[in-house]
Structure formats: structure tokens, C-alpha cells
Amino acid sequence: MIKAFTNTISSFGNYIIFSSTSLKRMIYPIVDIKLLIQQMEFVGNRSFVIIILASIMVGAVFGLQFGQIFKTFGTESLIGAAAAFSLSKELSPVVGAFLVTGRGGAAMAAEIASMKVNEQIDAMRVMAVNPVGYLASPRILASMIMMPLLTTFFTLCGVASAFVIGVCIFDVDVGIFLDKISWITKPEDVIAGLEKAVIFGAIFSSVGCYKGFQATGGAKGVGRVTTQAVVTSLVIILVSDFFISYFQQRKIF
To answer: Is 208 helix (H, G, I), strand (E, B) or coil?
Structure first.
């Protein structure tokens, strides 16, 4: 029990040191622009389709569920407002981060872990190339840049899907639907969701890179750290989401 506790504390400390080093390497020396663009394409473009598909389905389900509830009280016009508020402030950053973690975060961990077990990272050190600045920093920065963009598309497509459900199934007037959205959902709610997206992007990318650097034991070790990276990222995202929401509610964050 004590050994497990000390190992957890030690791992957390190593992760904090790794993350701080990665953040420093984004600024000095500055991240290579070519590497950054490659990672932005990897995190953003290759996750775009799954983000759009998921947002359409989530928005449609929200439209149906909210419609059934609001129909009881004769307030179907609030479907759009409820969907826009919940998506922009909470579900878009969280669900989007989950999806990109399962695809991008796992790939980051697996790629770096493969390099680690094949001693390519040791070869980089021999050639005087800092592996953290070369491998981790571009991935973390790219995730922090692309997650707010993916979150925005998630929100827009989700609201559009709820709009179709509300207008076609629950016969909501288009003008009233849009007016209720602007009445309930404020710019600060959208900004709050984008703030979460930036933090979640930093979390899953830094955890994925950190776990990749810790890989040992050949192919089996690569699979193990990849699984650990995904599970750990999802748990941290959920826990941090509560505290971020609390601080935002108190106007601290």
C-alpha cells in the first residue's frame, strides 16, 4: 500500500516536471513550425470527421430528449437554447476531448513508446537533439491550438442537428428557436467551453507523450503505456472538468 502510494506520488511529480519542461520548450527554443503544422494536421484534420459525426448524433439525441421533456410543459422552443448552452459550455469540450484522446492521444503514446523501446530516443540524445522539445512540445502545442477549433465545430454541428429535430419533429418556429438560443447562451458560456478545450488538449497530449517516454519491455510495453495514457487522460479530464467548472462558476478562472 505504502509503495503504491509513493510510486503514484513519484509518477505525478515526474509528470509535472515533464510537462513544465515541454511548456518551456515551446517558447525557448521556439517550437519548429514544420513539426507544429504536422501535428496540427494530425490532431485537427484527422479528427474532424469523427468530431462532426459525433456532434450530429449528440445534437440529435439532445433535440429528441429535450423535446420530450419541454413538450410536457409546452416549451418546445427551448430545445435550441438548452442544446446550445449544454454543448458550448460542457459537452463539446468534454466529448470532443474524449474522442481526440481515443484517437490522437493514443497515437501519440504509441508512436513515442515505439521510438523509446527501439532506442530511437537515445539516438536523438546522442545527436544532441532534445527529445522532449522535438517530440512532446509540438504535439502538446498543436493539441492546445486545435481542440478549441474542434470544440467550436462540435457545438455548431450539434446545435444545427438539434435545430433540425426541433423544427421538423416538434414544429418549433425557426425565429423563436434562434431567439431562445441568444437569450440563454451568452458569449461567456462559449468562452468557458473553449477554455476547457485548451486545458483538455494540454492534458491528453502531455499524458500521452509522458507515458510514451516511460515505455519499456518491447511491443507489450507499447500496448501497456498506450492503454494507460488513454485511461489516465480520461480520468484527469473528468476530474479537472469539475474543478474548472467550479472556478468558472465562482469567476475565479
So the answer is: helix
